[in-house]
Backbone:
């Protein structure tokens, strides 16, 4: 909450923001081509990895007893000096434009020179789906990589984008109507390869072994936390795009945002009535998160889930809806606490200032990333029966 802002005003702002984000995602999900969802997830991943890189850059000096973080330093600083540009925005924009052109040209050339006969999609799919996705992914990745603290962080973001592309190739290469089409691309194998490459990079660039090990550990946390969970969210939405499971996505979105607003509202109402016997969840991580707020969030989430399932005419048993929502919100609370752990270690309040008055994008999706795991498992279940 901003200083001097009333509780009611901040609550209304949260509700409006949640409704706006949910409406935007629902619009993309229901009205735009299937590949648009994957492109949105690619941008989400790039921005979250950028925010994560700055959190880790603040944590690392405390672990290796190094110099404090220079907030003016960024991955393209040396390139800006060579080009004699003082504006960070201009340097990053030129870099992103160049990288986008190079990456798009590479994939088009690869399609015609090497993979045209081997791949199962035609030129129309190439230019209507694959090239737009690559352009969006490359530009978002290049901007976030250029604004990251170091060149190693930039490489991590770039590898994250490549790994995400490989993992979600089913979206690009499979026919829209075929929900059973899959390419044999194991996500665990892709993430393992990314971790190995980052390990080699850290070992070859770090000044000491301690710095290399700590840098590698922090990056591996980010790879599993962000690349792993975002691809689960992306595949969950993608699998739902051509089935009744699309309704489950709507339940997930509204339940998570209702829980967030409900927890916030419950906490302030209890303080207003003079309630003092709070049961803290993890006071060393986030002193404002407690059992009472979590229960209030679950009540709001259940109300949202039942309303959405009623409006969408979903034939889901009340017990199933209740258990699914409760477990998902408990998982989402773990997501909140995990990000609180990262921010506490980095000694910051928000993951970034990207969203004025609301913190960073990672602050907005931390709960969603964890909750989507529960809904994804449930959606796979209903796809198989």
Residues:
């Amino acid at each position: 909450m901003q200083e001097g802002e009333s509780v009611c005003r901040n609550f209304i702002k949260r509700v409006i923001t949640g409704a706006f984000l949910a409406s935007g995602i629902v619009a993309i999900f229901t009205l735009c081509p299937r590949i648009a969802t994957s492109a949105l997830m690619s941008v989400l991943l790039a921005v979250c990895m950028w925010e994560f890189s700055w959190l880790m850059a603040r944590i690392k000096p405390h672990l290796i007893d190094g110099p404090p973080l220079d907030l003016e330093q960024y991955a393209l600083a040396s390139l800006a000096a060579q080009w004699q540009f003082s504006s960070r925005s201009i340097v990053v924009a030129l870099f992103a434009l160049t990288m986008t052109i190079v990456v798009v040209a590479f994939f088009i050339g690869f399609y015609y020179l090497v993979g045209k006969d081997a791949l199962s999609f035609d030129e129309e799919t190439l230019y209507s789906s694959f090239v737009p996705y690559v352009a969006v992914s490359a530009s978002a990745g290049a901007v976030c990589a250029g604004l990251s603290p170091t060149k190693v962080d930039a490489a991590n973001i770039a590898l994250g984008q490549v790994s995400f592309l490989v993992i979600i190739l089913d979206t690009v290469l499979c026919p829209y109507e075929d929900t059973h089409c899959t390419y044999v691309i194991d996500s665990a194998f892709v993430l393992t390869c990314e971790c190995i490459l980052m390990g080699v990079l850290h070992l070859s660039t770090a000044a000491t072994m301690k710095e290399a090990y700590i840098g590698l550990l922090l990056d591996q946390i980010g790879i599993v936390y962000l690349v792993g969970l975002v691809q689960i969210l992306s595949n969950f939405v993608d699998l739902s795009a051509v089935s009744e499971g699309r309704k489950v996505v709507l339940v997930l979105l509204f339940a998570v945002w209702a829980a967030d607003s409900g927890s916030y509202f419950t906490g302030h109402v209890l303080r207003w009535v003079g309630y003092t016997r709070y049961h803290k969840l993890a006071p060393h991580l986030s002193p404002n998160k407690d059992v009472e707020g979590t229960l209030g969030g679950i009540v709001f989430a259940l109300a949202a889930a039942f309303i959405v399932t009623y409006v969408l005419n979903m034939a889901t048993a009340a017990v199933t809806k209740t258990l699914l929502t409760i477990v998902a919100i408990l998982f989402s609370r773990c997501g909140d606490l995990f990000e609180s752990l990262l921010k506490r270690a980095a000694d910051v309040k928000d993951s970034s200032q990207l969203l004025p008055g609301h913190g960073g994008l990672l602050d907005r999706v931390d709960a969603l990333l964890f909750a989507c795991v529960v809904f994804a498992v449930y959606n796979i279940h209903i796809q198989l029966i």
Remarks:
- The chain has two domains: 1-31+243-385, 33-241.
- Residues 209-240 form the longest helix (32 residues).
- The radius of gyration is 22 Å.
- Residues 1-31+243-385 form one domain.
